Amino acid sequence: MRIGVLALQGAVREHLEMIENCGARGEAVKLPSGLNGINGLVIPGGESTTIGKLIEKYGFSDSLIKLGTSGVPVFGTCAGLILLAGRVLERRAPTLELADVTVKRNAFGRQVDSFEQDIRVSGIEDEDRPFRAVFIRAPVITEVGPGVEVMAGLEHGIVMARDRHYLMGAFHPELTGDKRIHQYFINMVSRACPGAA
Amino acid sequence: MLKGGVIMDVTTADQARIAEDAGAVAVMALERVPADIRAEGGVARMADPAVIEEIMKVVTIPVMAKCRIGHFAEARSLEAIGVDYIDESEVLTPADESNHVDKHQFKVPFVCGAINLGEALRRISEGAAMIRTKGEAGTGNVVEAVRHMRAITSEIRRLGTLRDDELMAAAKELRSPYELVVEVSRNSELPVVNFSAGGIATPADAALMMHLGADGVFVGSGIFKSGEPGRMADAIVQATTHYEDAGLIARVSKGLGEPMKGLEIGEIDKENLIQFRGW
Predict the structure, then answer these.
(1) What's the CA gap between B135 and A51, in Å, rounded?
(2) Residues of A carrying an active site annotation
(3) Chain A residues contacting B, CB < 8 Å?
(4) Does the residue A22 lie in any domain?
(5) Domain of residue A38, residue span
(6) For B177, which of A14, A162, B99, B118 is 20 to 30 Å away at the CA?
(7) Per-residue pLDDT of chain B in tens (279 residues, 90 and over written 9)
(8) CB A73 within 8 Å of CB A189
(9) Of B219, B256, B221, nearest to B235 (Cα)?
(10) Distance CA A178, CA A11 (A)
């Protein structure tokens, strides 16, 4: 099974390592041609304006939208969540508008307001065991469409959700060594393409 | 999350906008870029908070600002303004020739310069959340950036080859805390990100530093001292992402106009070298 990680900027290597730890093959994707034949895609955290601009520059938008609408599972974390969101408050760069959620950027404030917190993420393995979530200038989901499953929330808003084959997290699950969320995504990919080993 | 990105020095809100539009992951708010500090001389201090605040208002990417080495009162002021990172920087005139800021006492993260692994580990031990190799700021000459990045990565590789009973001697040699030396030896990497800074002036310079193991780059005078800052900024961002793609780097380097003029390191008097500030 081949999982791409959009490698324009951000925590690319950490996601690749988590994917490999879950037993799948991770591939850094730097140009649209790298999306050919992948079974799932992770859009990592980074600066959403930077990633958004590079997506536009290399003509990634159409390929990413085509990938998503064809049913290939996509997991967006932090900046990746912003890029997947259908609606973004105070948007600075173009997004893909694939998932039925509304997102607020920098919802917790500036860098000094970054924090780590144990949260409960429903649906992952051993879901009652807390997941250590790292929030770095994180966005939140402020509204979701009718079909969206809310998986985790804080008082500020929703921090993890799934809309069909789009998985979205406001925090950085690649930084703590806990692979349950990546495993959840890999399982989504396995179900979407039973043929891929 | 700044990894794989470019952090640009800016002195005005307009420059900050150009940097954000080009895809910078953060900006460093300054009164003067290092090339001007070098040319004009005098004591270089923390920037005017009004300038920093104006820059914070116009961009949504993180804003960093510099305090003098050891000047914790400047650092407290920057923290009060709400900057996203403080750079305890040798580019400004040091305020303390023995002690750096005790960065554990702050909520805001710090980035600090280093020319070798020992210096990097001392800064991390004081609480730095990010390291940048110093290079020689304001010269547009990448040679010192290369020297410092190679020094740190090769020292990390060497630590990885040592036996456990050799690590105390290594800590003594590096003048660094033993626990951090053990950690680096085990993981073969620093416990924080390490960017490259000081002399990067072209897209190929940025790509070179990424090849040598940088997690990202700081570009100081190289952008706004070039003939066409917007295009230079854009090209350096692309070269940093695609550092392994030689064709792309050649393409984005075409017709960028005048890069900053630059300085030969040998022509700078030893006492005017910025990289030896910090201890």
Answers:
(1) 27
(2) 78, 172, 174
(3) 7-13, 30, 44-47, 49-50, 53-54, 57, 78-79, 90, 92, 105-106, 110-112, 136-137, 172
(4) yes
(5) 2-192
(6) A14
(7) 899 999 999 999 999 999 999 999 999 999 888 888 888 888 899 999 999 999 999 999 999 999 999 999 999 999 999 999 999 999 999 999 999 999 999 999 999 999 999 999 999 999 999 999 999 988 889 999 999 999 999 999 999 999 999 999 999 999 999 999 999 999 999 999 999 999 999 999 999 999 999 999 999 888 988 888 999 999 999 999 999 999 999 999 998 887 777 788 888 888 788 888 888
(8) yes
(9) B256
(10) 15
Axis crossing angle, helix B49-58 with helix B13-22, rounded to the nearest 10: 40
Instruction: Please indicate, yes or no, if residue A197 is contained in any of the structural domains.
Output: no
Question: Nearest to residue B204, comparing CAs of B245, B257, B149?
Answer: B245
d(CA A183, CA B16): 40
- Closest to B41 measured CA to CA, from B50, B32, B49: B32
Number of domains composing chain A: 1
Nearest to A50 among B23, B84, B85 (CB): B23
Q: Do B79 and A10 touch (CB under 8 A)?
A: no
Rounded to an integer, what distance in angstroms lies between the CA atom of residue B142 and that of residue B169? 32
Distance CA A176, CA B55 (A): 33
For residue A159, give both structure tokens: 């921090």
B43 in contact with A at a CB cutoff of 8 Å?
no
Predicted TM-score (pTM) above 0.80:
yes
Within-domain flag for A102: yes
SS3 call for A108: coil
Q: Which residues of B touch A78 (CB under 8 A)?
A: 1
State ipTM. 0.85
CATH code assigned at A18: 3.40.50.880
Q: What is the mean pLDDT of residues A171-176?
A: 92
First to last CA, chain A: 5
